[in-house]
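Chapter summary example.
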Amino acid sequence: MESALLFFVLPHYAVIIFFILFSLNTSKRRSKFNRIIARVSKASLAKWLLPILGLLLITACNNGNDEAVGPNINGATSQICPNVTGAQAIYWDLSNGIPRGDLPGGIPPTVDRVGGSFSHPDAPTLGFTYPEGYSPQMIRAPQTVGVDLTRQDGQVLWRWLFTPVSGFPSAREIRQAEIQQVLQALGVDPNNIELVCLNEGQANPVANIAVRSSKALVRAGGFTIQAAATVTLVEGLPTSSVNIQMSVGPTAEYDQLIFDTFLAIEWQMLFTDRGTQHPDSDGDGVTDPFDRFPNDPNRN
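The structure predicted for these 300 residues follows.
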């Protein structure tokens, strides 16, 4: 199975690209997008478009052994925070744009038992299959797209949200508010949080575009939460675009949830072309162009 090492490596660019695709979704948004692009020089665009196109050509191949065994992930350590280890180290680093070569089997995980599929009508790129026992709740409002994927027992949540806000607010404050809201829904004291790892900053990846980001790995009340807020401002516009991503689950299950649910879903969004709606003939969560055994649900 071939896989492209794409947007995990460049998280800021991933948000910008989603912003571009979403802006082009309607003719009204297209005119706004054209005004935005007019502010960005061709030279500046080349600085980030060419690297992304180059990454599209980078592939990591399976060694051909259907039962390939990956490295012992228990010994993995985060390159950002040495105190984060195991599966959480891999997930945390990937989510912060740090490539990891120690995924089990050498390839990203897939949904084992498919419970259904979700596709947002306003954003084809926000589409994926999800495991049994989960239910998606679509978030839809003017210029807003998102989804909350919740396990039936209410103990696990995967959230992806893209929405406008006024001005250029603090990414940290948005991320903190999201964490507090989730903890309150879980019945956990939001004032007793252990901060495990934090990665924040501001960058200008493209001329006339500023990005603030705040990513945190926290634990509270027996739950682990990985949360990220990215705020993107285009010079001259009165609003910013906010992208929120959260992965919430019981600490005792979190390592397994990373591979069974969180990464399995994010792989589909970031590494497959959802806009073409490739079929998944065997229903194993891997679309046919990326499945070496498209008619065998036990192998991919």
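To summarize the output: The first strand starts at residue 2 and ends at 4.
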